[in-house]
Design brief:
Blueprint: H1 18-23, E1 29-30, E2 46-54, E3 58-65, E4 72-76, E5 81-87, E6 90-91, E7 105-114, E8 117-124, E9 128-136, E10 144-152, H2 155-161, H3 184-187, E11 199-204, E12 214-215, E13 218-219, H4 220-238, E14 242-245, H5 255-264, E15 269-276, E16 288-293, H6 300-310, H7 312-316, H8 329-354, E17 360-368, E18 380-387, H9 391-397, H10 400-425
Parallel strand pairs: 2-6, 11-14, 11-15, 15-18, 16-17
Antiparallel strand pairs: 1-2, 2-3, 3-10, 4-5, 5-8, 7-8, 9-10, 12-13, 16-18
Helix pairs in contact: 4-10, 8-10
The protein binds zinc ion.
């Protein structure tokens, strides 16, 4: 899930700067970190500062860059969002940037959405139209800037303003030279014909613009990627299965594409890897939990978790209503019954192996309606490795020793799953 409200950073007052002088707009809340940043050579344009100014009628967003970049901005409904696609940018912004509401902008987040493309997603306080969106060349004493101006409108006007070209398909922003396929699903190489090994798809959750949960400066997206890569290495070393990763770097992958990868690869097993967090003030919980797909959540916590994990696409600015469903519901239902039996069996194996090495949740087997587990023909489980909101869990999640042992346990469960499968598929069984 996304815990982007976890960092509370006080935005200092400030800066009669660009905004106020240039435009006569109200003074801006400015992230007043004036400390020099270490110089890191970046092949990409660098965003160095961000300001939001205005009120609930008009709000202006300004991003400072070291060079002018092209952009493409569009709005999305339910929830109200504005998405700005730009070429890949290195964001050198304060950690709290985007977490404080101002005017029409409730919050915003930013990050890589695919190789060659970054994205900024604004959560809006209400319906608003993009009054203008443009880039400015550097001027004397001013860096290059990207400016987005929003204006409050009523819902009817907002919906009318959603033009066809607003469709938020993942493609590089205007002017990007990087040649990137539309989705990872399209680029993942199909299974080689001479490779008869079962395919295991490992799916580190979140990525890019979607950080997932966060605590103590650790983002879920990084923790689960490290775990996924270590698990891949372990499995590949044994050589019994072919491993396909839904992501191997800090890239955003829509939920539907993760499922597509599993299906296109005719995967025999799909393992999604996450780390949960309890919202503030909702007590403490600890330990690993293994989730399978169910129409009906096994308990309120499982339902909360599925809801928040399912928000990944909205966080990344992918419009869920645009997602095509490629299989009729009834077919899904039939295939899923058998698939679910396999999923449940694998989930029990994971619990059995993991409890020897890792701390488990007091109810370690749960189910809920996770979108990422919906491949009708691929046994799928989602492992929540622990709670980043729990101090001891977080310490484990960051420990090399814990990771190595737990990777071993999951690999053991995968072996158990396929061993049983081979036996029961043999004649006379
Ligand atoms: Zn997650």
């Amino acid at each position: 899930m996304a815990g982007r409200a976890n960092h509370i950073v006080l935005l200092g007052t400030v800066l009669a700067s660009a905004v106020a002088t240039l435009c006569g707009w109200p003074n801006t809340g400015h992230a007043a970190d004036e400390s020099p940043r270490p110089e890191i050579a970046s092949p990409f344009p660098i965003a160095s500062d961000v300001r939001v100014a205005g009120d609930d009628k008009q709000t202006r967003f300004i991003l400072d860059l070291d060079k002018k970049i092209p952009l493409r901005a569009f709005a999305l409904a339910d929830p109200y969002r504005v998405v700005v696609d730009i070429p890949q940018v290195s964001f050198h912004l304060d950690t709290g940037a985007g977490t404080v509401a101002r005017g029409l902008i409730k919050a915003f987040r930013y990050g890589l959405v695919m190789p060659g493309g970054s994205r900024i997603v604004f959560d809006l306080a209400g319906p608003a139209k993009i009054k203008s969106a443009y880039a400015l060349d550097p001027a004397i004493g001013q860096p290059a800037r990207l400016v987005i101006e929003l204006e409050a409108v009523d819902r009817t006007a907002f919906v009318q303003s959603l033009a066809v070209e607003n469709r938020p398909d993942l493609r590089p922003a205007v002017g990007t030279t990087a040649a990137v396929a539309t989705t990872v699903a399209a680029t993942a190489a199909p299974k080689p014909a001479d490779d008869a090994r079962p395919v295991v798809v490992l799916d580190p959750g979140h990525g890019g613009i979607d950080n997932g949960t966060q605590a103590g400066g650790e983002a879920e997206k990084s923790l689960v990627l490290s775990f996924g890569l270590a698990l891949r290495d372990r499995i590949e070393k044994a050589g019994k299965y072919r491993v396909v990763m839904t992501r191997t770097d800090d890239t955003f992958i829509p939920l539907g594409d993760r499922v597509k990868i599993a299906r296109n690869q005719s995967a025999a097993l799909f393992v999604s890897i996450h780390a949960d967090a309890l919202p503030r003030g909702e007590g403490d919980a600890q330990g690993a939990t293994i989730y399978t797909l169910s129409d009906k959540a096994s308990d309120a916590e499982a339902e909360r978790l599925a809801d928040s994990e399912n928000k990944a696409d909205a966080i990344g600015g992918v419009n869920l209503t645009e997602e095509p469903t490629d299989v009729a519901d009834i077919l899904i239902d039939l295939a899923q019954r058998e698939t679910r039996t396999f999923s449940n069996r694998f989930a029990r194996l994971v619990v059995g192996e993991m409890k020897t090495t890792a701390r488990m949740h007091k109810h370690p087997l749960k189910s809920a309606g996770f979108k990422v587990l919906k491949a009708p023909d691929v046994p799928s489980v989602l492992i929540e490795l622990g709670y980043v909101s729990n101090k001891d869990d977080l310490q484990q999640l960051m420990s090399e020793n814990w990771r190595s042992k737990t990777v071993g346990a999951v690999a053991q469960a995968i072996d158990g799953f396929f061993a049983k499968r081979v036996v029961s598929a043999a004649p006379g069984n």
